[in-house]
Amino acid sequence: MKTVSVLGATGSIGESTLAIIRKHPSRFRVHSLSAHKNTEKTIALAKEFEPTVVTVTDPDSYQQVKAALSSSNTEVLFGAEALEHIVTESAVDLVVAGIVGNAGMPSVLAAVKAGKTLLLANKESIVAAGELVMAEAASTAAKIIPLDSEHNAIYQCLGGNYEVGERPAHVRNITLTASGGPFWQTPSESFIHITPAEAVAHPKWNMGAKISVDSATLMNKGLEVIEAHWLFNMPNEDINVMVHPQSIIHSLVHFIDGSVLAQLGMPDMQIPISYGLGLGERISNGADFLDLLAAGELNFVEPDTNKFRCLSLARDAIKIGGTAPAVLNAANEVTVAAFLQHKIRFDQIATFNDKMLNQVSIQTVESMQQLIDLDQEVRNLTTEMIEKQQQ
Questions:
Q1: Which pLDDT tens digit goes with each residue over 143-163?
Q2: CA angle, 106 as apex, 76 and 18 as ends, to 5°?
Q3: Mean pLDDT of the 227-256 span
Q4: Closest C-alpha among 155, 175, 154 to residue 301
Q5: How far is CA 50 from CA 30, 43, 47, 149, 356, in A?
Q6: CA of 98: how far to CAs of 102, 106, 250, in Å?
Q7: Is the pLDDT of residue 81 over 90?
Q8: CB–CB of 150/224 below 8 Å?
Q9: Is the pTM above the cut of 0.85?
């Protein structure tokens, strides 16, 4: 039996993880759960799974959860430091990093430093801190299994003996697929008229507003290129992107002998999560089965990087190196939020991201705290720039 620490237990990754664990009670035991402030759900999950520890990062929610579980055997801890504590516990076999945003970065690094097996869904820890995380993983022999559907697809295609961080000698290049979002056929001159409501209506995946906009601008795919660069030790030029509107093929690996392996499946996060939990062994997960006859046809189109400039900006960030990916990621957080608040147009997301990438001084990556401080600095600068253009 494997003991699991689920970070971000009340979010979509956490919920999907716990749904799979429910199906395999003899295979997994929940050691710890973390949440921010979804109080009722946190209490319900704690009572159901009876973890050793629950960590809550919102002070009000912490008090309520602690009171509700006072008669149980579950210890309730508070704060970000407690997150780093639970992932390093010797009793923990698997850490599911499902916390969204920079809040999840320190616990990811702590788990890697402790040599844990990390099921990684926190994008920022690799986009902004990939250099730190992968170097630490190499020194501690921590095992990283990516949960992002595209990177998990690559991981599956590379086979059971592959360790994330290695450059596979038998691989020529890889291809990440993109749904293209709702606007891949929309003329670029129409981008100025796109509304937030239109941008969050993703054709294939059920996602939150921010990631839906990232999919619409192809920034999400750009960030995934940065992740792939670090996870698979691949140079920029060996990471291809292809628009695949059906979202059936999640990624492809092109080998040196001319063969290509692809991972296919319904667009359901339970598939990569179950593969991660099974440590490469396939276990049942509740996902629908793919019917290729029903799918009918699979189409592929090269992305237009003149129209979707965010994809090019991500590649530029890799070339620049250092803290450039962290700068781009922080700027994009602010520009997407501004678009959703009707402060800037859809086409201006890429414009402001580009300005920040070129204006902020790029540094050598040295520490997680440096990246957290830089993130706040870039967010402030981006906010100021947007406010000035509104005057």
A1: 999 999 999 999 999 988 899
A2: 55
A3: 97
A4: 175
A5: 8, 10, 5, 29, 46
A6: 11, 13, 20
A7: yes
A8: yes
A9: yes
Average pLDDT, the chain: 95
- Tell me what pLDDT residue 145 has: 98
Domain-located, residue 17:
yes
Number of folded domains in the chain? 1
Work out the angle at residue 22's Cα, subtended by the Cα atoms of residues 18 and 26, and round it to the nearest 5 degrees.
120
From the CB of residue 141, how many other CB atoms can be counted at a distance below 10 Å?
9
CATH number for position 109: 3.40.50.720
Looking at the domain assignment, is residue 96 inside a domain? Answer: yes
Assess if residue 287 is contained within a domain.
no
**Per residue in 150-207, pLDDT tens?**
999 999 999 888 999 999 899 999 999 999 989 999 999 999 999 999 998 866 666 6
How many angstroms separate the CA atoms of 172 and 188, rounded?
33
Sign of the dihedral defined by the CA atoms of residues 359, 364, 368, 373, in that order: negative
- Please give the structure tokens belonging to residue 298: 């699979």
Quick check: is 53 in a domain? yes
What is the greatest pairwise CA distance in the chain? 62
Q: Write out the two tokens for 292.
A: 């290729």
Contact status, residue 20 vs residue 51, Cβ threshold 8 Å: no
Q: How long a stretch of residues is the chain?
A: 391
Q: Give residue 67's domain range.
A: 2-146
For residue 377 the two structure tokens come to 């600095």
pLDDT score recorded for residue 208:
73
